[in-house]
Amino acid sequence: MKPNPKNRNQAYFRHHRKRVIRRKKRLSSHWGWIVKFEGTFSKGKIHCSCWMCSNKTKRLGYPKSEQARIASCQEQLQDYRF
User: Fold this and answer.
1) What is the dihedral of CA 31, 33, 35, 39, to 10 degrees?
2) What is the pLDDT of residue 15?
3) Which of 3, 19, 40, 57 has the fewest other C-beta atoms within 10 Å?
4) Contact partners, residue 51, CB within 8 Å, separation at least 6
């Protein structure tokens, strides 16, 4: 159990879900997107492919953990070949 449990009712979560949907709906209308159901905005991210919204990997490269995993895989391939 968490050390500081939060007693939040269903209205709290409903409010934040509506808030997120409202924000994403405003962004989508700005870009001219047409969405059949508004509820699809409650989950996932909504972004464009501009340099500010795109994945950081494209600009900054892989994180250190990913680089270590790639190096490990390459070492395994070299050991397998010999």
Assistant:
1) -20
2) 93
3) 3
4) 59
Q: What is the dihedral of CA 69, 72, 73, 76, to 10 degrees?
A: -160
Is residue 31 a contact partner of residue 48, using CB atoms and an 8 Å limit?
yes
Q: What is the pLDDT of residues 56-82, one digit of tens each?
A: 666 677 778 888 998 998 998 888 766
Amino acid in the structure at residue 51 = W
What residue has token string 């919204």?
A: 53
**pLDDT at residue 54 tops 80:** no
pTM of the model: 0.50
Q: Compute the mean pLDDT over every residue in the chain, rounded to the nearest whole number.
A: 80
Q: How many CA atoms lie within 13 A of 27 on its CB side?
A: 12
Whether 17 and 42 have beta carbons less than 8 Å apart is answered as yes
